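Design job #97: recover the sequence.
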């Protein structure tokens, strides 16, 4: 089988997860890796909202406290803050202009300087529970908006834009926080493909892990999870090639943490003409299952070896 340059391709994938050592532990879907935090105290008292699985941060767990925008007239600043809170609530976030609790994010804003388009510059900052500024979002204000009083401006369009930006910032921060708690990954052996296929799939896995903010290392480490793949290829139909892949996760000392089984059916024409993109599709499905195994496995780093392969003496 030859592998050529690529364009777009669709890959049908199914991933089954087999986790070692989990027993009856509660399982959390890969899209909700913060589930282990449990129910954080609600910062406000909004109406009950069902959790939306699209969110990495479950909206019922973390609130957003909206502070008045500095640089606007007080009555206009209050109207804009209320509009932002309503827009965030429309995105299923418990948001309020009242102070939140220790688990809350805080939104602060200041009108100062000039935007590139000549408008007044509004800088929105998302502040974490520890007081650290996570990220800033710039927006432009018409000078008439800056000078406006009560009931003179419809703030809803700006509020919706700010709410969407805050949502993106929160999700990005949450993904990075989750990834930082996972052990790094090393891509080990991938058997069953020719050298070019192994190279392309390895590169695709690294790219897909990077998209999930998962750290990837090049050498075995005691604190790393090694991922090996075994690929079996069959031809169930004349125009279809089936990939069955078993991903095995292990520590550097060989202890198995779990497995993710993946099935992909690919059109033969797509495979011949678009293999690198097919590899990306396979990798995207693989990292979801692999990340779920990592999140559900009780990972204990392997004991690092000294020269000669002798473990270090126990600490006294």
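Job complete. Output follows.
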């Amino acid at each position: 089988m030859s592998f050529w340059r690529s364009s777009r391709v669709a890959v049908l994938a199914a991933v089954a997860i087999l986790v070692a050592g989990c027993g009856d532990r509660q399982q959390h879907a890969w899209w909700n890796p913060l589930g282990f935090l449990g129910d954080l105290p609600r910062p406000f008292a909004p109406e009950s909202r069902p959790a939306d699985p699209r969110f990495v941060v479950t909206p019922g767990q973390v609130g957003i406290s909206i502070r008045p925008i500095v640089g606007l007239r007080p009555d206009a600043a209050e109207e804009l803050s209320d509009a932002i809170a309503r827009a965030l609530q429309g995105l299923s976030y418990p948001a309020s202009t009242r102070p939140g609790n220790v688990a809350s994010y805080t939104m602060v804003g200041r009108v100062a300087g000039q935007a590139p388009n000549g408008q007044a510059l509004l800088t929105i900052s998302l502040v974490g529970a520890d007081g650290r500024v996570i990220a800033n979002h710039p927006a432009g204000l018409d000078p008439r908006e800056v000078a406006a009083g009560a009931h003179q401006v419809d703030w809803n369009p700006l509020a919706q834009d700010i709410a969407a930006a805050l949502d993106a910032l929160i999700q990005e921060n949450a993904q990075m926080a989750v990834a930082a708690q996972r052990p790094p990954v090393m891509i080990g052996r991938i058997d069953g493909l020719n050298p070019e296929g192994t190279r392309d799939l390895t590169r695709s896995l690294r790219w897909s892990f990077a998209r999930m903010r998962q750290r990837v290392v090049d050498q075995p480490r005691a604190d790393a999870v090694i991922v090996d793949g075994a690929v079996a290829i069959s031809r169930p139909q004349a125009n279809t090639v089936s990939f069955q892949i078993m991903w095995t996760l292990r520590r550097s000392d060989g202890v198995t943490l779990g497995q993710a089984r993946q099935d992909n059916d690919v059109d033969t024409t797509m495979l011949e003409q678009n293999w690198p993109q097919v590899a990306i599709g396979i990798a995207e499905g693989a990292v979801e299952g692999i990340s779920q195994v990592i999140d559900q496995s009780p990972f204990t780093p392997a004991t690092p070896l000294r020269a000669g392969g002798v473990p270090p003496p126990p600490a006294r």
